[in-house]
Write a structure and sequence with these properties.
Layout: H1 3-14, H2 18-29, H3 34-40, E1 45-47, E2 51-58, E3 61-64, E4 71-74, E5 77-84, H4 86-93
Helix pairs in contact: 1-2
Length: 96
């Protein structure tokens, strides 16, 4: 499911206008949205029953340039990590 499909599903399920659904999706998941802003601040975002997003720092390391084969230095970076909650895991594993 991509962003447009998520907006369409939200319109149908919540019975709201498309423009409002698009704003809600952007406010939550956009690069300047609520989740990204909290992760940039180093905070964890917990959504009970769904899961949590954590900022994870990856240390600097040596890597290899696949085109040249040369060893390169890869800088430390922060990456988002998502961990599914128990309710989401249970919903995914229910027998149909």
């Amino acid at each position: 499911m991509n962003r447009a499909e998520l907006v369409a599903a939200l319109v149908e399920r919540a019975e709201i206008k498309k423009v409002d659904a698009a704003r809600a999706v952007e406010a939550l998941f956009g690069t300047n949205g609520i989740i990204a802003a909290e992760l940039r601040r180093g905070e964890r975002v917990r959504i009970t029953g769904f899961g949590s997003f954590h900022p994870r720092t990856r240390g600097a390391r040596l890597g290899r340039d696949p085109r040249t084969g040369k060893t390169i230095q890869i800088r430390a970076a922060v990456a988002p990590l998502f961990r599914a909650g128990a309710a989401l895991k249970a919903a995914l594993n229910r027998k149909r």
